[in-house]
Amino acid sequence: MSSREVVVLIVGGVRFVTRASTLQQFPESRLARMVSDDDREFKLVNGEFFVDRDGALFSYIMDFLRTLQVSLPTDFSDYQRLQREAEFYGLYSLANLLSQEHLLKPRLEILEVRFSLQKMQAFFRIFGSCSTTIEALAEQITVFTGQQSGQGWNSPFPSQKPLVPLPLERPSHHDMVFLCGTEYSAGDQFMARYVSIKPDKRKLINGTNVLGLLLDTLLKDGFRLISTRTVPSEEKAECYTFERMKRAAGLAIMVNQTPGSSGVAQARRSQVQKGK
């Protein structure tokens, strides 16, 4: 039995097909002993192992054995039950990770966009509770500057001179500030600032258009608009507040694969696909 490559398990009526080596990731676990025919509680019926446990929760255990990390859905809530299942199978490294429930639960992320118009310029300030989101957004937004002739707030023609990218103002890790539009320079020359937001390739100078593109970008990134209000200040800034559930960074383990290893490993944080 130990040399068998493919193993079939029926757990709580749910059928799983996997490799024997996957079940043997932790040699001292009951699943490893099952493959070696050393655990009599698991019944072998017609070449398939019958396990009278929760089949839905076992799918998360199989995912852990395949990836060596815990990555649960944002709406998952059965941490204690899954921890109990892990202990039943002798997967104490997994049970230990699940005991750190506060690290595995998704967190609510808040982002605020402030927008105000002053003459021919539009001012933007974006504040976020998650600094990594602000960093990612800063990589998407580029401000270009250049001179043009005539009053060009609504001018459809960009400057004939090459546009120069400007760095965004970053008061802190949690916010950014930028502006677009035109301001008087000299004679009939105006300094123009255009904004581009990836993946859109346009360079926009009209603040209202930039605001629309920015809000649309946030909605596509999984944010939900929860409120709009006008901030009572001299600038009369419009404030848009968004929220989304951000998936927690997964917990992973490093397994010592040397012969005779118990498979007990130290937990570490592992970045899981973003979070949305």
Report what the structure shows.
- There is one protein chain.
- The chain has 276 residues and is α+β, with helices and mostly antiparallel strands.
- Helices cover 25% and strands 37% of the residues.
- Helix 4 runs antiparallel to helix 5.
- The C terminus is likely disordered.
Blueprint of the fold:
Elements: E1 6-11, E2 14-19, H1 20-23, H2 30-35, E3 43-45, E4 48-51, H3 55-67, E5 69-70, H4 79-88, H5 92-98, H6 101-104, E6 107-118, E7 121-128, H7 131-140, E8 141-149, E9 164-166, E10 169-172, E11 175-186, E12 189-197, H8 207-220, E13 224-230, E14 238-246, E15 250-253, E16 267-270
Parallel strand pairs: 1-4
Antiparallel strand pairs: 1-2, 3-4, 5-15, 6-7, 6-14, 7-11, 8-9, 8-12, 10-11, 11-12, 13-14, 15-16
The percent range for strand residues is 35-45%
> Biggest β-sheet: count, sense, barrel?
9 strands, antiparallel
Measure the end-to-end span. 43 Å
Order of helices and strands: EEHHEEHEHHHEEHEEEEEHEEEE
Task: Report the C-alpha radius of gyration, rounded.
Answer: 28 Å
Q: Give a count of the beta strands, DSSP E runs of length 2 or more.
A: 16
Unreliable runs: 257-276
Assembly context of the chains: single chain
Shape: elongated
- Portion in helices: 10-25%
The computed structural class is alpha+beta
What's the average pLDDT? 82
> Helix count, per DSSP?
8
